[in-house]
């Protein structure tokens, strides 16, 4: 009997040790200690024994039950520990992953370039000014020395509204960012150093023109401002923007009603694998319009042109983006094609900084 019990005990301990998971272990527990269990059945035999037998067998059978109970408890703890380990390993968090799902959108190259412009000009002491896209005739034309009969009005292919503005003339979608010059001179005290990026509109549409496009206006009003300040500013800006030191500018005499003298600015470029890349003096292309602010414009804003002078420039932002990032069809900018946006778009965290490189 004694060695039978020993064998039985070893048998149970082996079965318990062999239980591979908690469910299997529970099955062994029921088989041993459950109501119909083998060990329970042994315990029941104690009732039918003589007192002498019970005295000798009792401790051994109880010893078996205890050994089985202990083995079950130990195995359970081991299996639970292993299950926890496994869960912890499987559920491990990668703390370097972003907390939110990756953003779906991207920053449009035009927005990116506007941010780059703001960053570069902020470093030169310029702030960003804004004005309405729905303008009145006076701010868009008259105050900029473009009188009613002036051919420049016809050249601008203006979108007009049926409603009249405060000047009694039809309201319009601004055809350039130059009216922000006027609004800034009227609302702020000189000296003024501003850029005004924004949307502009003209009734025009082909591979290089869209009815809505973007310009950036620059305006400086201060004492003793000269053409040299204009050239230095444009050179400094373009070198920072294109991140090259070999940017060469040529100023060509031109005509704008709101500047005197006026200059169109050409920038040198060269060809790399058939692509136009800015820098050097192999070829030149026209890039922007500029000049010394016309005394009549300064006077129209209530300032004394004998005391205040300045320079201004206007440049297409879409063009800047195309030259810097290599797109060749302007219309794609406004198609909203996701493939184009994913290819040319910027990540929201690519904030341009002068230290980090405005090219992001
Ligand atoms: N407003 C002009 C245009 O849309 C661009 C321009 C030229 C702006 C010369 C200026 C400037 O401020 O000085 O064509």
Give structural notes.
There is one protein chain. With 360 residues, the protein is an alpha+beta fold. The protein folds into two domains: 2-90; 109-335, 2-Layer Sandwich (BirA Bifunctional Protein, domain 2). The protein has twelve helices and eleven strands. Strands 1, 5, 6, 7, 8, 9, 10 and 11 form an eight-stranded mixed β-sheet that branches. Strands 2-4-3 form a three-stranded antiparallel β-sheet. Helix 2 (22-33) packs antiparallel against helix 4 (51-90) and helix 5 (109-123) packs across helix 11. It starts with a helix and ends in a 16-residue tail after the last helix. The protein binds 3,4-dihydroxyphenylalanine. 3,4-dihydroxyphenylalanine (DAH) binds next to strand 10 and strand 11.
């Amino acid at each position: 009997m004694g060695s039978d019990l020993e064998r039985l005990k070893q048998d149970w301990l082996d079965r318990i040790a062999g239980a591979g998971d908690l469910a299997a272990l529970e099955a062994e527990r029921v088989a041993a200690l459950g109501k119909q269990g083998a060990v329970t059945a042994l315990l029941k035999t104690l009732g039918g024994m003589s007192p002498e037998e019970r005295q000798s067998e009792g401790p051994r059978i109880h010893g078996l039950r205890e050994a089985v109970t202990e083995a079950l408890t130990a195995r359970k703890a081991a299996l639970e520990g292993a299950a926890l380990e496994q869960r912890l390993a499987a559920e491990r968090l990668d703390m370097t992953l972003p907390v939110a799902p990756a953003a779906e959108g991207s920053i449009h190259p035009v927005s990116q370039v506007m941010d780059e412009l703001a960053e570069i000009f902020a470093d030169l002491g310029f702030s960003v000014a804004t004005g309405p896209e729905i303008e009145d005739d006076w701010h868009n034309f008259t105050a900029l020395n473009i009188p009613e009969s002036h051919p420049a009005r016809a050249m601008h292919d203006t979108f007009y509204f049926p409603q009249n503005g405060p000047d009694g003339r039809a309201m319009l979608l601004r055809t350039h960012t130059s009216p922000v010059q006027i609004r800034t001179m009227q609302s702020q005290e000189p000296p003024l150093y501003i850029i005004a990026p924004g949307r502009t509109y003209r009734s025009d549409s082909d591979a290089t023109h869209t009815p809505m496009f973007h310009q950036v206006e620059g305006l400086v009003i201060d004492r003793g401002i000269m053409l040299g300040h204009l050239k230095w500013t444009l050179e400094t800006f373009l070198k920072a923007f294109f991140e090259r030191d070999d940017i060469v500018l040529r100023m060509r005499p031109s005509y704008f009603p709101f500047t005197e003298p006026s200059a169109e600015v050409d920038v040198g470029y060269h060809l790399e694998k058939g692509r136009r890349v800015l820098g050097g003096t192999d070829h030149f292309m026209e890039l922007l319009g500029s000049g010394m602010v016309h005394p009549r414009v300064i006077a129209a804003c209530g300032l004394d042109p004998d005391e205040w002078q300045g320079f201004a420039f206007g440049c297409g932002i879409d063009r800047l983006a195309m030259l810097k990032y290599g797109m060749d069809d302007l219309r794609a900018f406004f198609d909203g094609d996701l493939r184009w946006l994913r290819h040319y778009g910027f990540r929201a965290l690519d904030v341009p900084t002068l230290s980090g490189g405005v090219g992001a």
